[in-house]
Amino acid sequence: MESLRQIWCQQHRSLSQLLFLRSISSKIFVKGLAFSTTKEKLAEAFSEYGNVLNADIVLNKAKNRSKGFGYVTFAKEEEARKAQMAMNGNILHGRVLYVDMEPHKKPEKSSFDKATADG
Fold it and tell me: What is the pTM for the complete model shown?
């Protein structure tokens, strides 16, 4: 039987924890975008699978154009997974898309790890 403390903790997770978990799990990575694809067109293409909160295209600042990849954030994880499964391998604006759940960043090496790697 669960203790009252465990039940209370499960019901009262901090808002920041929930937002953090939600932002990781509901964001998808989209590669293979045409240079002509805009944020609006990207959001429109993925909106069929759920509530798109945000669509971002990563820009090459030197050339002032798309690098060919971006991110789409959904309101729910299920929507993101549905879009990932449906859109991966599809063609958008003449290009084949590679769609995956947001890749996790590798943790930074600590100063100790860097020092020991140098010899």
Answer: 0.66
